[in-house]
């Protein structure tokens, strides 16, 4: 059972001046929402704030009826929130299987073997690599391990920071397809992505941040069709 994510008037930072200010957005259950914007706009800070890794000065973050502001990260995982950071997101010396196991520590699934089977069905590339150190895999495969680990706690909401960063075009397509497969399982996805045009093609909604504030929001289709959005954020005319 997934629940709506509601961020309301959220202001947060790292102890100095706020990095994000008065951010509001909602992500409906089972949707893919993408956060876009220029470098330094505060996109990663917003994800980190939802995952309780910054200092909140004002506002609220709700998953369903539950207020998340004030919860520690370790308490968020059992509440159904999981996250994949942008870099260093696998334990390089641990095997793929051990990496997946790490995802169960904060919120053990009811049936770990069954959950792992479901995840390996999503990421069949990992099936014959379970015993291999994650550090020996390709960038795309490592991203799959990181996503698989985040899914092992059976989250309602998964936060992904640039899941296609540094990947080849072929892997980029694979990761976007995988996000659609994950969405089909009912999990809500909120992600930051640099490949803005492709992300909007699979996203239900997009939110563009500029200088830490909401700039424009809309459905993926609306943002792709908006001339100003295309010119300023998508590198010009439609492909
Ligand atoms: N741990 C930190 N401590 C202090 N300031 C930080 C920290 N992390 C990020 N910042 C600052 O917050 C601002 C926003 O950074 P953030 O990484 O959220 O932007 P972004 O939109 O994700 O950028 P990019 O697209 O380049 O990844 C930047 O000015 C950055 O220097």
From TrEMBL:
<keyword id="KW-0547">Nucleotide-binding</keyword>
<dbReference type="InterPro" id="IPR017871">
    <property type="entry name" value="ABC_transporter-like_CS"/>
</dbReference>
<dbReference type="InterPro" id="IPR027417">
    <property type="entry name" value="P-loop_NTPase"/>
</dbReference>
<dbReference type="Pfam" id="PF00005">
    <property type="entry name" value="ABC_tran"/>
</dbReference>
<keyword id="KW-0067">ATP-binding</keyword>
<dbReference type="InterPro" id="IPR003439">
    <property type="entry name" value="ABC_transporter-like_ATP-bd"/>
</dbReference>
<keyword id="KW-0029">Amino-acid transport</keyword>
<protein>
    <submittedName>
        <fullName>ABC transporter ATP-binding protein</fullName>
    </submittedName>
</protein>
<feature type="domain" description="ABC transporter">
    <location>
        <begin position="5"/>
        <end position="236"/>
    </location>
</feature>
<dbReference type="InterPro" id="IPR052156">
    <property type="entry name" value="BCAA_Transport_ATP-bd_LivF"/>
</dbReference>
<comment type="similarity">
    <text>Belongs to the ABC transporter superfamily.</text>
</comment>
<dbReference type="InterPro" id="IPR003593">
    <property type="entry name" value="AAA+_ATPase"/>
</dbReference>
<dbReference type="GO" id="GO:0005524">
    <property type="term" value="F:ATP binding"/>
</dbReference>
<keyword id="KW-0813">Transport</keyword>
């Amino acid at each position: 059972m997934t629940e709506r994510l509601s961020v309301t008037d959220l202001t947060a930072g790292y102890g100095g001046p706020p990095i994000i200010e008065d951010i509001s957005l909602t992500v409906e259950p089972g949707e893919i929402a993408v956060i876009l914007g220029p470098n330094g706009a505060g996109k990663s800070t917003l994800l980190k704030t939802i995952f309780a890794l910054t200092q909140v000065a004002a506002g609220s973050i709700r998953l369903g009826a539950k207020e998340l502001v004030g919860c520690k990260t370790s308490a968020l995982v059992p509440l159904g929130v999981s996250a994949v950071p942008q870099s260093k997101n696998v334990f390089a010396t641990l095997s793929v299987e051990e990496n997946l196991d790490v995802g169960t520590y904060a919120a053990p699934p009811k049936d770990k073997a069954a959950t792992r089977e479901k995840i390996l069905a999503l990421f069949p590339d990992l099936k014959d690599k379970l015993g291999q150190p994650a550090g020996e895999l390709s960038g795309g495969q490592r991203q799959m391990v990181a996503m698989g680990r985040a899914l092992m706690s059976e989250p309602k909401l998964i936060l992904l920071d640039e899941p296609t960063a540094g990947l080849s075009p072929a892997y980029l397509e694979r990761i976007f397809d995988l996000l659609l497969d994950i969405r089909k399982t009912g999990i809500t996805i909120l992600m930051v992505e640099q490949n803005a045009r492709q992300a909007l093609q699979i996203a239900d909604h997009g939110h563009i941040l500029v200088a830490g504030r909401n700039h424009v929001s809309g459905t993926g289709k609306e943002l792709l069709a908006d001339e100003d959005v295309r010119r300023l954020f998508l590198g010009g005319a439609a492909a």
